[in-house]
């Protein structure tokens, strides 16, 4: 049986920049065995992709929606492009270069 992975895109709004949200997102994703990326956006949000075991992705969705970094204040999390994939598209979970609000 071929293992299927789950993939989803996310965008988190609220007080999520300048509060180590990306660092904690990378740590959470890595701890769950997920791969993907996270980056700041110019509108003040944080955007990314997570891939891996479906159950672990569900845990990540919960974390992105309800937990976040200790000093963050999440207003909403939008998840899109949910799908099954045959192989992971990333090697690990990375913080991408800043595109934060100027």
From TrEMBL:
Q: Which molecular-function annotations from GO does this UniProt entry contain?
A: acylphosphatase activity
Q: Where is the Acylphosphatase-like domain?
A: 7-97
Q: Which reaction does it catalyse?
A: an acyl phosphate + H2O = a carboxylate + phosphate + H(+)
Asked if the record carries the keyword Hydrolase, the reply is yes
Keyword Hydrolase found = yes
Q: Which UniProt key words apply to this protein?
A: Hydrolase
Q: Enumerate the active-site residues.
A: 22, 40
Q: Which residues form a coiled coil?
A: none
Which InterPro entries would you find in this protein's record? Acylphosphatase, Acylphosphatase-like_dom, Acylphosphatase-like_dom_sf, Acylphosphatase_CS
* Top-rank EC class of the record's enzyme: hydrolase
| PROSITE patterns found in the cross-reference section | ACYLPHOSPHATASE_1, ACYLPHOSPHATASE_3
Alphabetical list of SUPFAM superfamilies matching this protein? Acylphosphatase/BLUF domain-like
Q: What is its EC number?
A: 3.6.1.7
Query: What family is it from?
Result: Belongs to the acylphosphatase family.
The name this protein goes by in its record: acylphosphatase
Species name for this entry?
Paramecium tetraurelia
Q: What is the lineage of its organism?
A: Eukaryota, Sar, Alveolata, Ciliophora, Intramacronucleata
């Amino acid at each position: 049986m071929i293992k299927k992975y789950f993939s989803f895109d996310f965008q988190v709004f609220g007080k999520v920049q300048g509060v180590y949200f990306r660092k904690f997102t990378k740590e959470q994703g890595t701890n769950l065995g997920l791969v993907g990326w996270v980056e700041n956006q110019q509108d003040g949000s944080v955007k990314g992709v997570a891939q891996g075991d479906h159950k672990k992705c569900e845990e990540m969705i919960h974390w992105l929606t309800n937990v976040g970094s200790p000093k963050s204040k999440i207003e909403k999390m939008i998840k899109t492009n949910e799908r099954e994939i045959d192989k992971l598209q990333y090697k690990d979970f990375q913080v991408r270069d800043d595109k934060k609000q100027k």
